[in-house]
């Protein structure tokens, strides 16, 4: 691939910093996306400090004025929107403004986080934790987050090669242990538990003949760190197949609550159930 | 027991109707509380229709003006309070007023329900369902509820004899299947799930050395029909015994959601768990 | 395919009866193996009764003299050997001789059974049951078994097309619910439980990184009807990963015993275990 | 209690050594059986070495000539019989003879073991292990076993006081998780797994309305160290309640295999099952 095309294709991977792609272009060709990513990161770490600092300084704030005004890169808009940062209440927005200001005062750069890897609760926890860090360590942390963001953007640009491992998965299946077969037609809902009182629906699906959902509840992207519940409409399933149930049934909507700590991990959370018992585990 | 003492002791079992105890007194002695209860009910069903109707008409409305004004029997005050009817919001109070009025218009008696056997959601469902009934059947239903109320009051008066079966139970125990022994010191909370957004804490406890709570989460009274969640602080338990957990842990607070349809039943809902799996069932 | 080649390829599918392939050749071409099989069966059922009877009469006896003397078709030798009929004790051999004689006396044909679908215990049960049948029904049963045998032989001749569904599967996987991940390196053994005192080892394997065996314990052939045990060396696994176990451990070799009734079914029998608990189910 | 009666009652606790009871008599009264046992043991450990050695030397050999000839104390006869030592094959008997001789040559006393705490397999393992011990340590080990034997005999003499903890328990219960209630009428059998090919039936029972056996499968005595299987006739139960099962059923006789390492422990091994799944754990 000619240098110009290479830079054109990858210029957006590091926000407002096509110079990274240019510097890496000299090292072509790269066998894998992982090698390409390593090459881009090396281009950064071997650059003069001023340039490295500029790379960080050029990043948009989370839920910042620039973001509200749409003055940030397309990828950032999408990433912040996926994290719900474009739907903040005024009080939440104010909180981000305050944290952004405090962080910028302390470190002289915007707060940079690969938000695709965080749910809203863990994002705020991370923000407050890093405000306590020391400048030297924080520069490295911010750069590491920039590299993570780049890896995810790169993964989207270069489809076919999975060597970057930037995505995780939440999947499930439902087994009817009364009949000893998969439970088909069970409605399942994945919600993120943001706080004790606030949950956000992330995905809805219905199990197929194999008791699985046709696609993972989350896939092809990092699983945001956080707490989730998969809710299974088990009572509806049993009513439909004609099981005689009390009113209310002992098991109706069954919630399985679990935490995700590795955004690149596979969380398979199955349900094996009868109308009177169930079990789950982290499967594979 | 002399008749006067008998009437004095049991006069309050049928609200504002000591005549029931008087009529039953003739049939003394009774071998069991069940026999005594049957005797009192027989005294009602063999009474003239006018008297039977008066017995129903004399009952207080649920969350009615009389209740608010404290003009009802002590037992009724306690029973309505336990069901939370003394803590209704104005809109909920208005709804009860409307239902009470509609019911009284249709059937000429107040709505009578053994509220000890209903959670708030099932109480309203029952109220609306019975508004659709026909007068003849509804009289019998109301009388049957009066008999249930009497049985529970009787059970409190006569301690030692369990023949009435007016009480149910919710109990649990927690098993640590990593160590193959009961999990001690696990905080558990029982909440009633009133609506998707409203839950009410019913009981809190901590498991003892046998992995059980010292007393049932609900006992010595009917279990109100409804949906419940037992929430187990499993993550805290594992942290305390030094298990190495991710942050957030895969299992932290584990909710077991189940429905209760038989107020006089025993619902034993155990948790057998590791940091990565759990199972439950309706046990005995 | 020219008729001669067609007959040459399929002549052995019906034992000692190339005429079946010849008769079916007229109906070429066949889209699928299932269609081909149907064509061969139709050639039989549309043949004169004498020929149909000769087809059955020409079949070898199970564990019969001809088999012992090696005077039967190669496929039959292999099938009878797989069922262990070439390793019978003298008393077992005598028993087969007696059953074969009784059957031939009663029906005038040898006992025909698709032995690939039966374990040794169910084979004898089927033999004794069919001795009680009536001649008319037994002719149809024997012919149906001939068609099953043909389907399996056909499945071997024509590799690539799975439309015949003549094969089943026994598979497993092992989950370590203490660590919440697959249990690798667990030795598993599949035995057929022939009688209370006799078991025969069918397969041995060790679980891989995904907690599964690289190939099914039984696959690419019917699963013989019978009772099986999968035995998991769970104690060895826990010792190897350094779990502190009592001596003897609570769980050492874990046997999962289950019956197979559908030779063409998939029996997935997983083990989810800690050193103190386990569970299994028929999975998918 | 007068000294004579005291000695008469306890004389047999230490085999052929009434002097132990005599020496302990001086320390009367004892508050608990545990205190009494401690007093008897102290009488031994404070006796001259010659006497202590004589106490050990006076013990009968396991499955020795004296035992065969009935020349040993009644308690020993019963204990050796319970361990099956009176039913040894000639080769097993010869093996014990050889071990007894080797042990006596090496240590100058008979091999002493509290056989009530061992199954046949663990008894032989212990025998071979202790043959490798050194004389000094072996004297203490043998004396400790004499004290254990005394504790068990004492426990039988003095009924009502449980302070000695010389007994363990194996119990079970069966839960029908299809119906969410205890499984009544399930035949269960407890067998000791002596070797891969030899099992010995220890107890049979049928579950009652609560899904439990009326008495523990083993209780009121130590649970012999060893490997056991509880076998549940689950298929018969499902047939009886009218469940539609394949032939053979997926689950018919369900074996739960487990090891016992603490003879004084409580091993509760429940079965929660459907026709297609089951789970077990060491419960409490």
Q: What attributes characterize this protein structure?
A:
four-stranded mixed beta sheet; homotetramer; alpha+beta; about 280 residues; about 40% helix; four-stranded antiparallel beta sheet
Description:
Four copies of one chain form a homotetramer. With 284 residues, chain A is an alpha+beta fold. Chain A is built from ten helices and eleven strands. The first copy, chain A, has helices spanning 3-10, 18-25, 33-45, 49-57, 65-68, 74-82, 90-107, 120-131, 135-157, 234-240; strands spanning 168-171, 174-176, 181-182, 187-193, 199-206, 218-221, 226-233, 253-260, 266-268, 271-274, 277-281. In chain A, the strands form three sheets. A four-stranded mixed beta sheet of chain A has the order 3-2-10-11, with no helix packed on it. A four-stranded antiparallel beta sheet of chain A has the order 5-4-7-8. A three-stranded mixed beta sheet of chain A has the order 6-1-9, with no helix packed on it. In chain A, helix 1 packs antiparallel against helix 2 (18-25), helix 2 packs across helix 3 and helix 3 (33-45) packs antiparallel against helix 9 (135-157). The first copy, chain A, starts with a helix and ends with a strand. The mean pLDDT of chain A is 90. Chain A binds chain B through residues 122, 197, 225-227, 246-255, 257-262, 276-282, and chain B through 122, 197, 225-227, 246-255, 257-262, 276-282.
